[in-house]
Amino acid sequence: MDELRLYTWIAVGGTFSLYFFIAWWARAGSTSEFYAAGGGITPLQNGMAIGADWMSAASFISMAGLIAFLGYGGSVFLMGWTGGYVLLALCLAPYMRKHGKFTVPEFIGDRFYSKTARIVAVVCLIIASLTYIIGQMKGVGVAFSRFLEVEYDMGLYIGMAVVFVYATLGGMKGITYTQIAQYCVLITAYTIPAVFISLHLTGNPIPQLGLGSTLADGSGVYLLDKLDTVVSELGFKEYTTSTLGDVEMFAYTLSLMIGTAGLPHVIMRFFTVPSVKAARQSAGYALVFIALLYTVAPAVGAMARFNLMNTIEPVAGQNLEYAERPQWFKEWEKTGLLAFEDKNGDGKVQYNADPTTNEMVKVDRDIMVLANPAIANLPNWVIALVAAGGLAAALSTAAGLLLAISSAISHDLMKGVLIPDMSEKSELLASRIVMTLSVCVAGYLGLNPPGFAAGTVALAFGLAASSIFPALMMGIFSKTMSSKAAISGMCAGLGVTMLYVFQHKGIMFIPGTAFLGDMEPNWFMGISPNAFGSVGAFVNFAVAFIVLKLTGPAPSHIQDLVTNFRTPHGEIAAAHDH
Amino acid sequence: MEDKQSYWQENLRLIFICLAIWFVVSFGFGLLLVEPLNEIRLGGYKLGFWFAQQGSIYTFVGLIFWYGKKMNDLDKKYNVEDA
User: Fold this and answer.
1) Is A241 an interface residue toward B (CB < 8 Å)?
2) In this predicted structure, what is the pLDDT of residue A505?
3) What is the pTM of this model?
4) Both A278 and A144 in a single domain?
5) Residues 51-110 of A with CB under 8 A from B
6) What are phi and psi of A301, to 5 degrees?
7) Residue A85 belongs to some domain of the structure
8) Do A34 and A92 fall into the same domain?
9) pLDDT at A252 > cutoff 80
10) Over the stretch A524-544, which tens digit does the pLDDT of each residue have?
């Protein structure tokens, strides 16, 4: 184990030094550099940075594990978290880049000629982003405590310090270049174990093809067919057909897609490129870089599940002796994320879907990616790389979210609403102070994760899907959409979604205050609270158009503004001249 | 002004085509039609399953680049390119 710790310190220490070097090299000198990297990032660089910004600890650590246990049902995450980029590239990014401002609330405030609209957008942004940060900070703490055997708290302080240095120093410019490095680290760390495992199981080094290949054991049986047989014999749902329910999968996928397109920390990355053309292109590159991980994830999930089943029951009826369990089994038992209980007292491990005879009483989904290299007997340097990759994913997303929060407060609330005549120099100082405070709040929430942390992830996507996405769409595609109509729509969409989440999960997630139980029979058309953002978005659109009919269209200078940002050519100032 | 109008109309038509394909490969092939498509095999993959976990993502990437290219042509045609 000492060799592993040495390699892990080298991988983590090496990557962290790289991030510090980049931060010092790319420090920001103006508000334009701090908020939008001076508008000088190329589409390829921006695509890579968006990839790291978007792919969080959840994508890196949790997603393949979710797919491993949900099978076909896990497709909602794959389609939902990639399909949103089509909406971004076609319907939002080019026009928002043309308008040429720094933040999403600023765009909403300008388009709907209303400070109220801008403040509503700031509130949505802060709630959605803070929710995400809690998850990233927890990911940093877990990665440090599992791989470097330092305390969870200590790991979190180290993570906070690293983010603090490069985010406050470099702003968007420093974050962009660090994210490019972090993308390279995380994609390498994700792909290498997948290639080894695919090669080992199927003889094909490309995981996307390996998943559709026959097993390398000479049986000529396809991997997915074998997996289907193995899991269904043990009473689990068949891997390739297990569904979450038709309406639920439809609504869930749609919610994740429009939630993705409405997340401010992703949208604001499109303000960093020099032109409208570059904004369209960088969405394409971003999805290429994201797809590299998202098309490997289903292979990682299925192969991890296969290896797990195979370790416990290599041949039907010949189960693993508990006394002879492999080293990784013991390591994860220590963390409590894997637990065995010898119910029939035969000293062997039985793993099946029947709760009365199943002896694997706990198999945490999150361990699948982290334990995968060990389950597949890969060398220690691969495991060290996975640790560095998980940290890169968590830190890059945390930095992007912190920037979204601090710019919303310093640029939209302070400069935009409270102190309009603030100088650029004091705004830059203010944004650094706000960034410092945000790091502290994020660290505090990571140390004391509120009991409702898991539940609020649904709320973050629901908020973006039901409030920000419809407002942006209507602002761009309807010339006449007025401030009254848009604000009513946002409040209605937000209200319906929050009410639905609260009635099933408890008011502010306080246990016991849910007035309708969190059970399927109580769900509206079988849609879970996680998937309700799509319904909220529909309500938003409907209310906005009814109010528009009743109160009349936007003034003509706003309609001219819309005409202007619909064409790339024209007079609105670019972000770097702002 | 009229030029801007027809530029926007052509843009809307492109967006509509792309979103139709976007909908068909994900919600269509990946979700609604998954059962009949699963009768067809693509190597070890059932086709519906493949669209849900692989094919839709590849199509999304292709769509964004195709739209970007078409829009560059359109910008040239109407002479509305930016810097």
Assistant:
1) yes
2) 64
3) 0.90
4) yes
5) 67, 72, 74-75, 78-79, 82-83, 85-86, 89-91, 94, 98
6) -60, -55
7) yes
8) yes
9) yes
10) 666 777 788 899 999 999 999
